[in-house]
Amino acid sequence: MIKNLTRTGNSVALVLDKQLLEAANLDPDDEVEVSTNGRVIVIAPVRTKREVEKFERAQELMHAKFAGAFRRLAK
């Protein structure tokens, strides 16, 4: 998808349409992190502390449940 940058005062904005927001599972009020890798701009949702804790807990449960299988696969 090709988008144009838009001047907004002394800044530049990138307008993201509804279809793109839905595809990225973002809402207009979501907080995002913007970073760059040379000429590539990356826009990613900010993970809340609660989301990180939930993921870490699920990861711990998975490792506990499948520890034997992971050990066998590692051989």
Note the overall shape.
elongated
- State the share of residues found in helices, binned by percent: 40-55%
Characterize the biggest β-sheet. 2 strands, antiparallel
How many discrete domains?
1
Rounded radius of gyration (Å) = 19 Å
CATH architecture: Ribbon
Strand content: 25-35%
CATH fold-level assignment? Pemi-like Protein 1, Chain: D
Give the H and E element order. Answer: EEHEEHH
Number of strands: 4
Measured between the Cα atoms of the first and last residue, the distance is: 44 Å
Record the strand order, biggest sheet.
1-2
CATH class: Mainly Beta
Kindly name the structural category: alpha+beta
Total number of helical segments? 3
Mean pLDDT: 92
Task: List descriptors.
alpha+beta, Pemi-like Protein 1, Chain: D, two-stranded antiparallel sheet, two-stranded antiparallel ribbon, 41% helix
Give the structure's gist in a few sentences.
The chain is of the alpha+beta class. The chain is 41% helix and 27% strand.
